[in-house]
Amino acid sequence: VELDFLESESILSLVERVRALGYDRSCLADWIPVYGEVWGYFDGAALLSGSELSRLNSSMLQLENDLRENPGLEQKLKPRLLTRYFWLASQYKAIGADDARVERLMRKIRLLDDSIGRQYQA
Questions:
Q1: Percent of the chain topping pLDDT 70
Q2: Best exposed site among 32, 38, 51, 106 by fewest CB in 10 Å?
Q3: Measured between alpha carbons, how far is 55 from 68 in angstroms, rounded to an integer?
Q4: Cβ pair 27, 76 in contact under 8 A
């Protein structure tokens, strides 16, 4: 996301709220979808195709591994992984997934970032 080219007042408001949290400009764009989801700027369930879901799961596993292997990159990797967890949560909503699957995902979110996990309602 090129922040300088955004025009939507709602999204610009979100950007300013996230910027006020003190994130470095280099990772600010990665945190915008996280807080957009948490604060209710984005709404709607997405139904992913089988191949999209497969790519999403693969991407999540890669980011989880990268985060374990490179803790110094946490500020860049964590928001990207949270965003993917939210995409999966959206899929779960769309298909009416059972509570156990949703709870496992919520545990992952809370383990990654407890503050985000407490604010997020799957």
A1: 97
A2: 51
A3: 20
A4: yes
